[in-house]
Amino acid sequence: MKVLEKLIKNKTLYGIIIVVIMWYVLHWSIESNVIPSPYSTVKRFIYIFPDILSRHLMASLGRIMIAIGISIIIGVPFGLWIGMNKKADSIVSPVIYILYPLPKIAFLPIFMILLGIGNTAKITLIVTIIIFQMLIGVRDGVKEIPKELFYSVISMGVSKAGMYKHLIMPAVLPRLFSALRLSLGISISTLFFAENFATTYGIGYYIMNAWIMVDYLDMFSGILALSLLGLLLLRFLDLLEKKFCPWVFLK
Length: 251
What we know:
Blueprint: H1 2-9, H2 11-30, H3 38-84, H4 86-99, H5 108-115, H6 119-143, H7 147-155, H8 160-194, H9 203-212, H10 216-244
């Protein structure tokens, strides 16, 4: 029981073990090359990672990081503005609510026509999807701050810059990290789709190309690489949140 309790506390290892068990169950029950065994997949992954998979992963990671960076640069200040300004919120929010639910992934052909078939169109597509996560998360974080706290800060003579530093940003950061986690998953899903068009490097392209070539072992190696990329990025966000929002983990 103690071993099990320690295993459950190590959430990453626990999750990996559960997924591997489910994977083996599918492999044995289907009895087909369509789902190769975890052992064969890991072995193939290790073999092709240095020369092949690493290039595709780095290409995908670069697109994701640029898109998230642009979304933060635009979405955070804009979210703070409409969160602090009721008039701006009343004007902008209705437009956001109309644009946010639109299936923007369908606009990829238009972006490719206007911006070319390279990385710009793919990055733009990701930005147009995830920027709303940032914007709404930051806006809601500002709105959740009790008015009494604003009055207290103002009564102490704190400057506007100090108000953002000591009150607004600490309140908004947990919301921003939550938005980043959601955006990360959406970015990877969107990029997987976008990399199937006019691309020679990218993990989405690699997976689909392996599927077309009926190379299921390489396909699952790509899926494994994509999963590990997502896991590492999420863990990196956890570390950043612990550093910049330590009060969240005191509960």
